[in-house]
Amino acid sequence: MAAYLTAMAISAGIYALLALGVNLSWGMAGMINLGLAGFFAVGAYATAMLTKAGAAIAVGIGAGALAAAITGAVVALITARLRADYLAIVTLGFSESVRITAANEIWLTNGSDGIAGIPGPWRGNLTPQQFNLLFLLIVLVALAGTFVVLHRLARSPFGRVLRAIRDDEDVAAVAGKHVLAFKVKAFAIGAAVLGMAGALYAHETSYVAPDIFAPLLTLNIILALVAGGVGNNAGAVLGAVLIVALLEGTRFAAPWLPFLAPTQIAAGRELLVSVLLLAILRVLPAGILPERIAR
After folding, report:
1. Which end of the chain is more exposed for a tag (fewer CB within 10 A), N or C?
2. Who's near 244: CB < 8 A, 6+ residues apart?
3. Can you give the pLDDT at residue 257?
4. Domain ranges of the chain
5. Of 114, 118, 93, nearest to 102 (Cα)?
6. DSSP letter at 260?
7. Nearest-CA neighbor of 30 among 69, 89, 88, 70?
8. Residues 198-217: what's their mean pLDDT?
């Protein structure tokens, strides 16, 4: 049971990093990003290929974050004139393009078979339980550092400009702010966090494949952010922990439903999670921890 809880805590930490990355571009800058699975995949594949070639794990994680940041900046420049639904559709298309490319470019990503044997920190020298505890510590340190940086960023002049762009980018432009530059920076920083989460995931599981980066991942993170509170970093972390707890906690309902097939139980779990999240939003429309803008 302890090993299971440790694994779930690692998943919650990675989900929290994903929620923080999306919160920067969407919650603060108002840029709806449904392509988070694509940036997650870029970070995971970048570190997988580098570390398999002999690079240090820290170098691989940094390269994964950098690759995702550059990709995010390019996507932001391409979609600079798009807003709301149009931006969401294009970023979702980007995510699917990354997944399909990873599934077909066998020479680069090994196709649908994925990349296995990705090294983890001291994996060969530790027992599985010790490795999981060590990796949980690494994820928590990465999460804490990211949270502090993004929290300070939100309270800085840069964060205030992002919120101004979110509320009305035309007014921000009239006030003398270079809207495009701020959008690109926000998208790139958020993508870097997503790429770092992908790199950590790759080293934790030692395996990446295209199926892992399906749209359901994006949906789960968006639900986590909405339930926790869009625009609030603490809400993003809380929402991520909540969504993992709901997804994993509903597994224990299976013994109570022996008359249902496994596929029906899986569908029922998804339905139950959706109903619980809808109930939360019905009572708390702005999320559990809504954004509070200091005067």
Report:
1. C
2. 8, 11, 12, 15
3. 66
4. 2-213
5. 114
6. S
7. 88
8. 93
